[in-house]
């Protein structure tokens, strides 16, 4: 009797452990919050100025959010916002800072949105979207001023613009390097310009990221006229992104031009991220997987391979026991995924749309 009770207790513990794993990996990581919404206007007597500020923040926040998760133009988003009430899509808010003067009210506000309602709206309007957070991405803000390459050297106004940009400005979490002595030793301006893999890989290891972008801003000044050309490179893949920004200004408009270029780049990068994932979603294959294992460690091994695969867009466990797990997997490239599993000593047997996956013993 005691043995049966101990076995039952052990099974409950194992079930709870597995249950926690289900919760951890069944939810897509999506963005639902817009931070850093700055509101400022002249105080109006006999009115609830805080309420007015919140209404403005809902509109600005929703406009910014839709700009992030869709590839729609600003004008199209503007037309959509005219026919809806942004407050209907808000779940909560927080006022990070607030100040009153004799004439003005100002506040910094964070707004949280109801993703299900936004998803329903976009589907009703047949607007394609992708709300998944991008990976942490290290930025190496490289610039050339009259053909002189600058990365860590001071001044680098392009680097400074990235440091001063609003926090939480996009779907992608951009990380700016410290620019300390270690960074200078690991990678220099020529390394960044030539996309030297070894040096860029080493800087990615230091910051614990798998993606490094080199936004290269070429600036030329002639007789007070400044021209700007921005191109962007994937530092680890050694690929050129289809992002080109051209701008002109005079010397007085230099700082404004820098921030305009940065904002344009981050918007285009969001579009690039969303469009790339929409293509993957359109080409993905949904499979039902029966994962078979002999031990808890084997389950962890198989689960980690699937979860970390670049060929998997979605992985949700629906049922689990001590010997097998039933899951739904959305696969971007079926052949590459099979090759990846087999290279990790896993066998795949297909039975209609059900894949039986287990470890070779």
Structural overview:
- 41% of the residues lie in helices and 32% in strands.
- It is built from eleven helices and 15 strands.
- The strands form three sheets. Strands 4, 5, 6, 7, 8, 9 and 10 form a seven-stranded mixed β-sheet that branches. A five-stranded mixed β-sheet has the order 12-13-11-15-14. A three-stranded antiparallel β-sheet has the order 1-3-2.
- The protein starts with a helix and ends with a strand.
Question: What structural keywords apply?
Answer:
about 350 residues, single chain, 11 helices, about 30% strand, 7-stranded mixed sheet, alpha/beta
Helices and strands in order, then pairings?
Elements: H1 2-25, E1 33-42, H2 49-69, H3 74-82, E2 90-100, E3 104-113, H4 115-124, E4 137-139, E5 142-145, E6 148-150, H5 157-164, E7 174-175, H6 181-186, H7 189-194, H8 197-207, E8 211-222, E9 225-234, E10 239-250, H9 254-283, E11 285-292, H10 296-308, E12 312-320, E13 324-331, H11 334-343, E14 346-351, E15 354-359
Helix pairs in contact: 2-3, 5-9
Based on secondary structure, the structural category is: alpha/beta
* Number of separate strands: 15
* Average pLDDT taken over every residue: 84
Order of helices and strands: HEHHEEHEEEHEHHHEEEHEHEEHEE
Provide a quick synopsis of the model:
By secondary structure, the protein is an alpha/beta fold.
